[in-house]
């Protein structure tokens, strides 16, 4: 699995096209979306997930289904967001909670509106309706952000900074 990221403000689609062209020799990928809007390549077996936060854009590419989220850390977490956290979640790192849930939702290819309320992060693990999710999470701290990748199995990840 490879995770490409840049702190240079960019358009996500243009960044994906650049990565595919420069590193995979793919010049015109055909992309479609599932009913919830998750994008897929039509013409080859490579999975991807895109996330951005402020000026950071990240793209994860893998041979297996994947979900990625990145969130820029702020000094203060908005109260409207922390009010939605469970008692257990309020004891955890907010950015780890947020990126874990978002990456898992992207991995599943489901609607955030339907799945988010069913998820709870506690004791360092993600649960869906009180059952541990069958997924693996990888975390990294880059450029003042928390990054989380969700996949079906443990895999080494290579972080590649593109300027």
Structural class, please?
alpha+beta
List low-pLDDT spans.
none
How many strands? 12
Rounded to an integer in angstroms, the radius of gyration calculated over CA atoms is 16 Å
Strand order of the largest sheet: 4-5-1-12
Mean pLDDT: 92
Q: Distance between the terminal alpha carbons, to the nearest Å? A: 20 Å
Helices and strands, in order, run as EHEEEEEHHHEEEEEE
Helical content class: 10-25%
Total number of helices: 4
Largest sheet: number of strands, sense, barrel closure: 4 strands, mixed
Q: Give the strand content.
A: 35-45%
Q: Which shape, going by the Cα principal axes?
A: globular
Topology summary:
Layout: E1 2-6, H1 12-24, E2 31-33, E3 39-41, E4 47-53, E5 56-62, E6 66-72, H2 79-82, H3 94-108, H4 112-115, E7 119-122, E8 125-128, E9 131-132, E10 136-142, E11 145-151, E12 158-161
Parallel strand pairs: 1-12
Antiparallel strand pairs: 1-5, 2-3, 4-5, 6-11, 7-8, 8-9, 10-11
Structure, described:
With 163 residues, the chain is α+β, with helices and mostly antiparallel strands. 22% of the residues lie in helices and 37% in strands. The chain is built from four helices and twelve strands. The protein has helices at residues 12-24, 79-82, 94-108, 112-115, and strands spanning 2-6, 31-33, 39-41, 47-53, 56-62, 66-72, 119-122, 125-128, 131-132, 136-142, 145-151, 158-161. The chain has a four-stranded mixed beta sheet with strand order 4-5-1-12, covered by helices on one side. β10 and β11 (145-151) form a beta hairpin. The mean pLDDT is 92.
């Amino acid at each position: 699995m490879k995770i490409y990221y840049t702190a240079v403000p960019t358009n996500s689609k243009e960044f994906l096209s650049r990565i595919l062209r420069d590193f995979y020799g793919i010049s015109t990928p055909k992309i479609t979306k599932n009913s919830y809007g998750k994008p897929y390549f039509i013409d080859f077996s490579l999975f991807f997930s895109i996330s951005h936060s402020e000026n950071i854009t990240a793209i994860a590419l893998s041979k297996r289904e994947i979900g990625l989220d990145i969130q820029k850390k702020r000094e203060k977490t908005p109260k409207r967001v922390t009010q939605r956290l469970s008692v257990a979640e309020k004891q955890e790192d907010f950015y780890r909670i947020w990126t874990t849930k978002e990456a898992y939702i992207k991995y599943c290819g489901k609607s955030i509106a339907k799945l988010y309320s069913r998820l709870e992060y506690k004791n360092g693990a993600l649960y869906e309706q009180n059952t541990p999710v069958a997924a693996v999470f990888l975390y990294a701290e880059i450029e003042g952000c928390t990054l989380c990748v969700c996949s079906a199995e443990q895999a080494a990840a290579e972080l590649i900074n593109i300027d």
